[in-house]
Design goal:
CATH architecture: 3-Layer(aba) Sandwich
Number of strands: 7
Structural class: alpha/beta
CATH class: Alpha Beta
Strand order of the largest sheet: 3-2-1-4-5-7-6
Largest sheet: 7 strands, mixed
């Protein structure tokens, strides 16, 4: 471990501790982690046994593991733009893999359920992705989507900064994220308002929405985190769900 690392890591740790301490003062609405809620509550509340499930963009880390797949007698199909990501998934997790771009793929209308977690922010044509999702689902099928919002402060900074600068900052502060983050993000039409319009234009019915108002990007520097949290609180009062950092949506394809 270098001298710089030995100094920086404890400093960052102390700032994250202060950030968590401050969050304890806020209502639960502002501290619920969106990704965790999507995985542990949102998806389980909609999944059924004996159905065909597409995991879009799950790659090597599908949301549904092999044990749950067998217990619930699911047919699990992995769709990802990167064949290497699909090949690194645990053995026997996927019953079928499809290497394709979700923004242009033409589906077979064979999915009862489609899961798309933290993927659409990396897609340059989200409207195309909505059309593709519609083509994958059976009539009556359901798509469960979780995405960071393009309105979030980190998303705005992401679009402004050069790729090398963003990765250097992200991996310097949180090296453990190197294997899971760092993919280029576009945030094309990734806001609650945009999703509602895309759903309407592509023939979906929105069955459920959940909005989350926390992320960890500024927690490594408490003064910035404090200012950002005040900004979120103000934004929630003024524009409500449009101020969400991340959000989940359940889209039903009508019978």
């Amino acid at each position: 471990m270098s001298v710089t690392t030995a100094i920086v890591r404890p400093l960052v740790g102390s700032q994250k501790y202060l950030s968590k301490l401050f969050d304890k003062l806020l209502p639960e609405k502002f501290t619920l982690d969106g990704n965790r809620d999507f995985e542990r509550s949102f998806v389980p509340s909609h999944i059924r046994d004996n159905v065909t499930v597409y995991d879009v963009g799950g790659g090597k880390s599908p949301l549904i593991g092999i044990d749950e797949k067998r217990r619930r007698n699911l047919t699990l199909i992995g769709l990802d733009v990167d064949p290497d990501e699909l090949s690194r998934a645990p053995e026997d997790t996927y019953d079928e893999t499809i290497c394709a771009d979700i923004s242009s793929y033409q589906g077979r209308q064979d999915a009862d359920l489609l899961i798309c977690r933290a993927v659409l922010e990396h897609v340059a044509d989200v409207e195309g992705a909505f059309r593709s999702i519609h083509s994958i689902l059976k009539p009556g099928g359901l798509a469960l989507v979780f995405t960071p919002s393009g309105n979030a402060m980190y998303a705005r900074l992401n679009r402004m900064l050069p790729e090398k600068t963003k990765k250097a900052l992200l991996f310097g502060v949180s090296p453990e994220t190197r294997a899971k983050q760092g993919f280029r993000a576009y945030y094309d039409k990734c806001t609650p308002r945009d999703f509602r319009k895309l759903a309407r234009d592509n023939g979906f019915v929105i069955e459920e929405e959940r909005f989350y108002f926390i992320s960890s990007y500024f927690s490594c520097f408490f003064p910035a985190y404090l200012l950002w949290r005040c900004w979120i609180l103000l934004g929630c009062l003024m524009v409500r769900h449009q101020a969400a950092e991340t959000f989940s949506v359940a889209l039903r394809k009508p019978e």
